[in-house]
Structure formats: structure tokens, C-alpha cells
Amino acid sequence: MPDALEDLNAYVDASRPEFERRLAELVAIPGVSADPAHAADIARTAEHAAALLRDAGLAARVVPTAGSPVVVGEYLAGPDRPTVTIYNHLDVQPADPAQWRTEPFRLTVDGERYAGRGSTDDKGPALTALQAAQYAVARALPVNIRFVWELEEEIGSPNFEAFVRAEGSRLRTDVVLVSDSIWIAADRPAIDYGLRGLVTFEVTIETGTNDTHSGLTGGAARNPLTELAGIISECVDPVSGRILVPGFADTVAPVTDEELDDFVASGFDVATFMAAHGLTSLRSADTREVLRRVMAEPTFEVHGLTGGYTGPGVKTVVPPRATAKLSARLVPHQDPQAVFALVRDFITARHPDARVELEAALAPYLGPRTGPYAEAASAAVEYAFGRRPAFVREGGSIGAVLTMDQHLRAPVILLGLSLPSHGYHAPNEHYDWTQAAGGIRMFVHYFHHLAARPARA
């Protein structure tokens, strides 16, 4: 065992009280980025996060943006040494106390379980990496370590790209580690190398100015709800989920058998998946097919229909307008703007008075699953958790990953620590010491690997 790792296990065990104290302090600040009423809490989160970085031996600064600030922490071993940047976010989702068994903004420690809003998404993983950096700083490991902690991730990172652009060369790095993803199974580590993109849009049909009596106008009057249902069924088969818009998937690269084998090796179980999400049936019960659909294929989803009467009983009116709230999840090589234009043109060619409006667009991401930085990540995970990780793709989207990939021009590796049971965005969200302890070992091993690389010329 290399000298730098000799006392790591003892350090991890001894650091638990400090980790719990830091996590309790952060959880106690309700930094809900979606609610302007919590703007002061966002500012408090930033200042406290900077104090935590300094307490761990790093320099820290709070960088203002047009919205919420970004917190940057740095340990500089030397300009000729490799640099690792670790990204997390510290803003959180809202929490309704009535839905929680404990107070959401007070950390509740129950054995190894840490319950509280933000405990797993993403304050716990952020502090896990910080505990590892503290170890590296105290031992003067010859690697530059930078933290970038965002406070607007939960609202789509609207100012993060401007921050990265403004920082320019100050953010130069050799690799970026992102700890904001979820393993597929608790007993099998996973590294995400791909993220689906997203296009959200609304389709509106307006055929009048007010509700009309269906007994007086029905049959002659156009019904916008009925027409919207028809539009949706022209775009996607409701039974199979197959997307019917011509050209929609032309640029999609089929997932390989090798990739699918790794998806399956992640420990995914169909029954567990259904139970975790409260699903009573699926479009397929085949493991490989479910994984293909969730990780590597695009989707066309309906999220809501507005229009007409929705109160008790039936009100026999023909509504004057209706709107469908829709999205498409995209996979690598699909361009979100091009996909939206394709869908918009497909709909309006058949329904000229349909109004199709783009809400948001986010490109998919495909990172490395081979090469020195991915292999170093795999080795670090295996060292910390005792099993080789599966390389998988995430079904969701992280806007900051795309920004860093585009502007920092360094490999972005997703080293998540959260488990399916931790309850991302859900009531009773929690983290646990087993994942934190393993995560500290994982990050230290990665730092140690980079420190062993030769100095730059």
C-alpha cells in the first residue's frame, strides 16, 4: 500500500463526527433555489460553504453571477502538477414538512442514516469529496484540487455557463469529477458516462373565446382537447412508446452489446425498479430492453393536458382552448434544437393553427468509458467499495456537465455516491455513512493516482 494511503482507513473512521457536523450545518440552511423567498438562504449557503472549504485547508471565494453565486475552493500544489476539479451543487428542492417523518431542514442521524433535504442531493456527496481533499491537503499530495459548488442546479443552471466563461483560464483542469448521480443497485457501484438530453415544449390549440354548451354546438364546434389527443397519437404510439415523427431518431447511434452487458452488470432488477418507482406495469419486462429504453433511447412524453372542466362531475362544455405539456428525452448525437424543429414542423404541417412553443433545450452528453481518467475512476471505485463498477448511462440530464465539457475541454467523469433508496427530490431524502466513508476513500485514491503522474514540462 502506498504511503499516502497507509493511514486512510483510520482517517475515515476518525472523520465521521466532523462529517456529520458539517452536513448538519449545511442541511440546516434551506437553500431552495426555485423559491425567491429563500434568496437569503442561498447567500448563507454560499458563505458557509466557503467557510467549510477554508476549514479544510483550501482557499475559497464566492463568485457572484447574475443569479446565485458559485463557490470555488482550491488547493494548489504547483503549476506543474495535474489539476482535478470536483463539481457539486448545494441548492436543494423544496420540502413539505407534512410529507416528512422528520424535520427536512434538520439533519436526523439514525445509526448510519442521515435524513434531511439535500443530504444525498447533493450536500452529502460534496462534503464527502471535501473530507477526502482535507486528507490530501494535510499530507501535501502533489495534485491541484479545485471545488466548484453551484447554487442553481435545481433550476437548470441558468447562470453557470456565464460563470465558466467569465472565469476562463482560472478553471483550467485536467479532469472533472461530478458527484451528482445514483447507482443502479446498492451492492454494485456504477459510473455514468452518458446523460440524456431534453427538449420541453407546449402545443396549444385555440378554437374560440369561451366555453360553449355541447348540446348547442357539439358536433359542429372543434374540440381542442380532442384535437390535441390526435396530435399526440400522431407523434408517439401510446402502447409501444415508439416515436412516429419521421427522422426523429435518424442520428441515434445504437447502443452496443458490450454497453448493454455493462448496463445489466450494474445490478439492475426489473421488479426492484418497478417497486422503487411505484409502477404496476411496464412496456417490456425484459431487463436488457428496459435498460435500453431508459439509458440509451429517446422518448416522447406527455406530462399534462390543460383545458376544459376538471371539477367534480361532468360539465358538458366544449372548451375554447387546450394545451399539452410535452417533452422528448434525447440520446447522444441528437441535437435538441433540430429535434424541436422537426417535431414543430411535423405538427404544424398537419395542424396549421397549432401553436408549438419551445420551453427549454438541453443536449445529451457522452463521456469516456475508457482511457486513463475513466480507468483511474474505475480503480478508485474498486479500491473504495471492493467491486469493479459498471459503466452505465443516466436517464436524466445535468446541464452543468455539458457546460464544463464544452468550455473546460477536459474529460468529465460522473462519480456518484447516491443510492436508489436515498430518495432524490423525495420526502425523507437521506444519505448514509457507508457511502460517505467509501466515497472519501474513492476520492483520495483518485487524488493519489493523479499525484503519481509526472510533472508537466
UniProtKB/TrEMBL annotation:
Residues of the Peptidase M20 dimerisation domain: 193-352
InterPro entries associated with the record: Cyt/Met_Dipeptidase, Peptidase_M20, Peptidase_M20_dimer
Single GO biological process annotation from the record: proteolysis
Keywords: Hydrolase, Metal-binding, Protease
Source domain of life: Bacteria
Protein name, as recorded: Acetylornithine deacetylase/succinyldiaminopimelate desuccinylase-like deacylase
The keyword Transcription regulation is annotated on this UniProt entry: no
One GO MF term: metal ion binding
Keyword Metal-binding in annotation: yes
Provenance organism: Frankia canadensis
